[in-house]
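Lab manual, section 2.4: Encoding a predicted structure.

Procedure: take the sequence of the chain (200 residues), apply the prediction step described in section 2.3, and record the output as structure tokens. A sample record is shown.
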Amino acid sequence: MGGIIMQDKKLNKLVKVSVLSAIALVLMFIEFPLPIFPGFLKLDISDLPAIFGAFALGIPAGIVIEALKNLLHGLIKTSTAGIGEIANFVVGSAYVIAAGAIYSFKKDKRHAVYGLIAGSIAMAVVAGITNYFIFIPLYENVLGFPIPAMIDAARVINPKITDFKGLIVMSIVPFNLLKAAIISIIALLSYKKLSPILHK
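Recorded output:
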């Protein structure tokens, strides 16, 4: 009997992760630029189902949701040879891990807020570091998208951006911080209503 119950729990969790991954994939297709950032930075809220998964089902579930949505997006529609999907996974996972770790200490609203703040900072910091050292150089070397062109596009929005470091500090980092803040606010407003379904 115990084995059957365990199997039912695993199946239940698998179904929830699959549904959340599918929702995340759909949300990943709904992206749009913001006028205060260069056009190559597009906002989506596809990390929202992953944070729901991390809060309700545990951090590993959140990471799996991040992985599945990016894998499927890469297979269905990628314009970046998979670089964008890998970047999205790394940055999204940083958000999920930081937020989920703090929330796991005590599952109340205060820890949810602390976790989402920590997750937002983690997303911005990891986005800045990985884009500087890995992803933007890959865009240039693999896709032939020159870094100077990115800097020029960013300078149109913010004339203070004159070099690669400026692009990271004044464009990439603030964009990801804003993105995480938007997702966090939506999560705070909606998680309590969805929590009973995710825990059922």
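Check your result against the sample. The mean pLDDT is 94.
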